[in-house]
Structures are given as C-alpha cells and as structure tokens.
Amino acid sequence: MIKLIQFPPAFGLPNPSPSCMKVEILLKMAGLAYTIESASNPGKGPKGKLPAIEDDGALVGNSELIRWHLERKYGVDFDKGLGDAERAWPRSGLTPCCSTAAGSRTGTGRF
Description:
The protein is of the alpha+beta class. It has helices at 18-30, 63-74, 84-101; strands spanning 2-6, 34-38, 52-55, 58-61. The chain has three helices and four strands; from the N terminus they run E-H-E-E-E-H-H.
C-alpha cells in the first residue's frame, strides 16, 4: 500500500500545502489505496520537502514526480479525454510558472 507523507492538518484544512493536497487528490482520482503519515519535518521527503510517497520501498518526492510515478507504475491517465494541446499546456505553462513563483533561486523555474 502507498504511504503518503505530508504535513498535518492545519487552519481548518486537510493540509496547508497545495502540493500535498494535489498528491492526495491524485491518489483519490487513481482509486489507489493509501495511508497518510503526518510529518511536521519536511526532511522526511527525499529532497527535504513534502509531499512524498513511499511505494514498495521506493521514496518519491515532488508532486509532479509522484504524478509521473503513479501514471507509469499503475497505468493511470490523469489527462484522459484531453487532446494534445490540452495535455501539453499545464506541463509547459504552469510548471515553470509555479516553480518560479514558489521561490526558484535561479528564476528559470528549475530548482
């Protein structure tokens, strides 16, 4: 079973981190069984950040890498029903924008 490692609930939300909420939603959309481990220390993630998942002994961090892991390992298509243009847009447009907004030191959208 997949273990989702994320911050504990706070501020009346299931999780104060949008990235952690994204991963939990992906797991629910995929219909995969999972447990939650609350961690206040982001050092539990492989890159010193949360969220992370532990899946068959593999520790995967970063919400986008977790998405790719779920797609590849479990054959989940989160973009089912989208055309080529719609599939390309979020990964080419949002990811660099969000990475830069989240505090990329280089300003290039890469950490």
